[in-house]
Amino acid sequence: MSPGKLVSSVPENTLLKAEPSPLEIDPCRTALVIVDMQNSFAKKGGLFDMAGSDLSEVPAVAAAINRVAAAIRGAGGKVVYVVHVYSTDLHEAGAPDSANVIKSGIARISREQPQLRDKLAIRGSWGAEIIPEIAPKPGDVIVEKIRHSGFYETTLDTTLKTLNARYLLFAGTELSMCVEATIRDAFYRGYFCILVSDAAVSSTRYPFRREATTYNVSKSLGWVTTSADVVKALSG
After folding, report:
1. What's the total number of domains in the chain?
2. pLDDT band (50, 70, 90) for residue 190
3. Which residue in 36, 185, 198, 229 is the catalytic one?
4. Catalytic one among 145, 193, 198, 229?
5. Is 146's pLDDT higher than 60?
6. What are phi and psi of 5, to 5 degrees?
7. CA nearest neighbour of 230 among 206, 186, 199, 207
């Protein structure tokens, strides 16, 4: 038995091709975790676009997410959207002189240029909305977060346990920040973490960021696969 495989009681048609080794998964205990695919971070006119981020990967990533989400729903798994959202008064961001507020583009721009608030991930704004290309379906779950990791002071862990999830497929943006931070915290909590590499956005201006996260996951935090391999495994 390879290090990446589980007991043989799991059906053969759920063998997922991945790096560093194939992994057998139970579809009914699998959840797709989509991180921060919101207008502020993935659309022209949003925070990332204003900051000069390259969003050219977004259309292909959105298509990959839809393929995986459809396969997960059809196989009896769950789709969980994790969204970064602050209240209008930014009380979750921290004290004005806190490290998070100093480093947070949302908090800084909201205070310095309030006319741009609709572009930011603030509750009720255009920026906070999930991009329409991958809009949630009935039965999907949405969890709000206030830091890079989807687990920091959120209901994500409780939600996943309620869903009886054990295997987590990860997608979203930004791969090397919020996606990786959430993967790390999931791994620490005992989940089997699987990065769907073509379903995650990483700035093409800095290719080493994608390479570093992919290496970190496959080496120490879990497995790396593709949307095509997920669909193949779940439609077996």
Report:
1. 1
2. very high
3. 36
4. 145
5. yes
6. -100, 150
7. 199
The two structure tokens encoding residue 149: 């990791």
| Residue 178 known to be catalytic | yes
Please state whether the predicted TM-score (pTM) of the whole model is above 0.85.
yes
**Is 145 an active-site residue?**
yes
pLDDT score recorded for residue 108: 83
CA distance 122 to 128: 6
DSSP 135-163: ---TT-EEEEESSSSTTTTSSHHHHHHHT
pLDDT single digits (tens) 46-58: 999 988 888 999 9
DSSP class of residue 54 equals -
Does any domain span residue 151? yes
Residue 103 lies in a domain: no
Give buried/exposed letters for 61-94 (b at 16+ CB in 10 A, else e): bbebbebbbbbbbebebbbbbbbbbbeeebebbb
* Residue 56 belongs to some domain of the structure: yes
Of 43, 178, 185, 198, which is the active-site residue?
Answer: 178
pLDDT band at 2 (very low <50, low <70, confident <90, very high): very low
The token pair that represents 136 in the structure block: 């949630």
pLDDT digits 0-9 by tens, 89-114: 999 999 989 999 898 888 888 888 88
What's 34's domain CATH number? Answer: 3.40.50.850
Residue 173 and residue 42 in contact, taking contact as beta carbons nearer than 8 Å: yes
Question: For the chain, what's the residue count?
Answer: 236
Mean pLDDT of 125-146: 97
